[in-house]
Design a protein that fits this description.
- The chain is about 15% helix and about 35% strand.
- The protein is built from two helices and eight strands, in the order E-H-E-H-E-E-E-E-E-E.
- The longest helix has 13 residues.
- It is globular, with a radius of gyration of 15 Å.
- The N and C termini lie far apart (about 40 Å).
């Protein structure tokens, strides 16, 4: 069973996940993808997540730095894939890191990167979180 998160937001006071642990409604998807008390997520063109994709997105959120968990967004990709993205403000004022995970329809991670930006908005480097390679 898929879910339809046409858009979702959190700051929820309760979490209602179906007994088998798979989100079955938009409200459950919002609770599952954006943890309780955490900011807002946006689903751009995402019409349906497979249960495997939802599990992968939940794992993505769980492993994010604490300051990035309140601004997770989803975007539809070709072939029923989805991109989960989160921005983490940096220690240097104005700097940031953008975490992006691309997940195919079977729930397999296709690509996972961390792009670091300086205060001027220039890319400092891109790290492939799967291989560990760093591109200058």
């Amino acid at each position: 069973m898929g879910i339809i998160p046409s858009s979702f937001s959190a700051n929820l006071t309760s979490r209602s996940i179906s007994p088998i642990g798979i989100a079955a409604t938009v409200a459950e998807a919002a609770a599952a993808v954006c943890p309780i008390g955490q900011g807002t997520g946006v689903a751009k063109g995402v019409k349906e997540l497979t249960p495997a994709q939802l599990i992968n997105v939940e794992r993505f959120i769980k492993k994010l730095p604490a300051n990035a968990k309140d601004n997770v967004s989803l975007q539809s990709l070709p072939n029923s894939s989805v991109a989960a993205q989160a921005v983490s403000p940096g220690r240097v004022p104005g700097s940031s890191a953008v975490y992006e995970k691309q997940i195919d329809a079977t729930g397999t991670t296709i690509q996972y990167t961390k792009t670091t930006y300086d205060p001027a908005g220039n890319i400092v480097h891109v790290k492939d979180k799967i291989t560990g390679d760093v591109l200058p």
